[in-house]
Amino acid sequence: xxxxxxxxxxxxxxxxxxxxxxxxxxxxxxxxxxxxxxxxxxxxxxxxxxxxxxxxxxxxxxxxxxxxxxxxxxxxxxxxxxxxxxxxxxxxxxxxxxxxxxxxxxxxxxxxxxxxxxxxxxxxxxxxxxxxxxxxxxxxxxxxxxxx
Length: 148
Hints:
Strand content: under 5%
Order of helices and strands: HHHEEH
Number of domains: 1
């Protein structure tokens, strides 16, 4: 098993376990809430953890079949996984702090503080470039292996 595939498989397990644990967190918040709802970002952290676990499995499979140098495949898997993990962590922080129900709404808050206005757009564009860029390179390797 390549390093890229191993990394993606481990990430899938971590994300899935986090999805299960945030599901318990979500349930506990729902039990205490008069409207039976968890904080929006606890709900989002739960769902994205589960979703990203399956996305990581896809990355692992693509890393296995991609016709790419191993180093290229590794970085193509690593970049999306790092940003998946960062997104989940951000959602969990907002859920724990209960500081916002929309992290894009201006001003961008974190706890009792306000982030500089450039932080969220820069982070979002970095996420877009890393996730899509990493996947496009990996998918190119898959296409080379399967079609070209």
